[in-house]
Amino acid sequence: MAESETKQAQMDRRDFTKGAAALGMAAAAVSSGPLVRKAKGADQVIKYAMIGPGSRGRRLLERHLVHMEHGECVALCDIYQKNLDRALKVFDGKPAAYTDYNELLQDDSIEAVFITVPLFLHYPVMKAALEAGKHVFCEKSLVFTPEEVHGLRALHEAHPDQIIQVGLQRRYSKLYQRAKDLIDSGAIGEVTHIQAQWHRNTNWRRKAAAEFEDQFNWRLYRKYSGGLCAELMSHQVDVADWILDQHPKSVMGVGGLDYWKDGRDIYDNIQLVFEYPGGQKLQYSSIMTNRHIAGRRVPGDGCRETILGTDGAIELTLIPYGDGMLYPDVMKVKMEDQAKQKDEGENWVAGATVGMDTAEQGDGFPIDPEAVDPSQVSFIEKEIFFAKTWAYHKGILRPEEDVDPEYAELSSFLKDVATGARPRADIDVGLQDSVAVMLANLAMDEQRKVHFAEIEQMGQEGVELTSVGAPSRGD
Ligand SMILES: NC(=O)c1ccc[n+]([C@@H]2O[C@H](COP(=O)([O-])OP(=O)(O)OC[C@H]3O[C@@H](n4cnc5c(N)ncnc54)[C@H](O)[C@@H]3O)[C@@H](O)[C@H]2O)c1
């Protein structure tokens, strides 16, 4: 073997071992996670309804809920008959059908509701559901206005035993949970920056007769929608909050309606910087004119979160399926080695050569959501784990989650209703996420830096509160 090949092989092995060690370290962190409360009535079948089974709702019904034995769909409600009929078909027409959600909510047999109406209706439907004694799963973004932030907190205080879960499915992804464990165990050093993007090349427009324009294309208009911030960024700012265990203290940004000038009034491209109390920054971009991602391993939307730490980076996406990579910063190791050699008076490698060498090492390690802690398993299992990790690294196999995060979030909600456990994506997660959406839009509208503490003063007039309940912010 030529000298350079030997060196390359050694680097490969060293990086592989380092990556595998980091992966093993994180597996240990996973196994020592918080105890799951013993389920009392976990097998209880929960009777539920869905309000607004349009595009999202029907996906949740068809792909996931219909297959769950611990839930029974007893009622469906939609103002649009075609969508109501399509949803009924999923259950062979068995659920009761409504066009007025207030009537549906009078059915005392319904314990929980899934709310999948457009954003501007989340709060009124949620309010009616909570007041009717139902547990609530509501799609993101949880609420639309500052008034609703305070209003929902007050409602929760008045109905503390009813569960409120928000549809932020990344919180239920084993891949994301594992990435979080990796980061918490120090695999990429201290996290200083996060970059996230959701780039598409599409106009978001649905074909609609004039009388249905607002109803079908609600996403395109500010009176119903939070635009790209609510529809896409909400998922990713939540990932940043979760990874950093903090909430932003300020946001600034630039938004424009520069390409899809078809009568809509939401931005079609947004660029934002969120600042966290620890000094970390989330740099965010969403555009609708190009979906390219440099080095993308899988097809699909240009959607990704990159977490940058002092010793490496982690890249994550759920679109079109879960994919996570850990990139140890080999350049940093090499430079440290070089500095040491220099101290010893033996610096033979020029900076430029180091760059060339290390660039070849940058292919990273796929993150296995199903990884085991090598120190806790049998010899055979350990060998299988390392073999699988090697195969993932070589691109021969792709690590996969055994449960779809959407299935997991819905199944978990029904179980939490049965047991009274607090959801991972609870009301606090949902409200903090909604505040980020609102304030990001405000920062772009008013072309200024918006402080998250401002939410406490916003939207307080005319809201009946049991207490002033702005979500706790990081500053
Ligand atoms: N978590 C995710 O990844 C994800 C993905 C897509 C959408 N969503 C969210 O899901 C929600 C719905 O989005 P969508 O694309 O399904 O919208 P949609 O327009 O396809 O569906 C909304 C449905 O609500 C119905 N509706 C409207 N007003 C109603 C009322 N008063 N009573 C009963 N039904 C009513 C509509 O007729 C329609 O069938 C949004 O908040 C969106 O952000 C989340």
Note down, in words, how this protein is organized.
With 475 residues, the protein is α/β, with parallel strands linked by helices. It folds into two domains: 8-31 and 172-403, 2-Layer Sandwich (Dihydrodipicolinate Reductase, domain 2); 46-169 and 407-427, NAD(P)-binding Rossmann-like Domain (Rossmann fold, 3-Layer(aba) Sandwich), CATH 3.40.50.720. It is built from 14 helices and 15 strands. The protein has helices spanning 3-31, 55-64, 81-90, 101-104, 119-131, 146-158, 174-184, 213-216, 227-244, 330-343, 351-359, 379-393, 405-419, 427-446; strands at residues 46-51, 71-77, 96-98, 112-115, 135-139, 164-167, 191-199, 250-256, 269-275, 281-287, 302-309, 312-317, 323-328, 365-366, 450-451. The strands form two sheets. A nine-stranded mixed β-sheet has the order 14-13-12-11-7-10-9-8-15. The protein has a six-stranded parallel β-sheet with strand order 3-2-1-4-5-6, sandwiched between helices. Strand 9 and strand 10 (281-287) form a beta hairpin. It is globular, with a radius of gyration of 24 Å. The termini are far apart. Mean pLDDT is 85; it is low at 1-40, 350-361 and 463-475. Bound molecules: nicotinamide-adenine-dinucleotide (NAD).
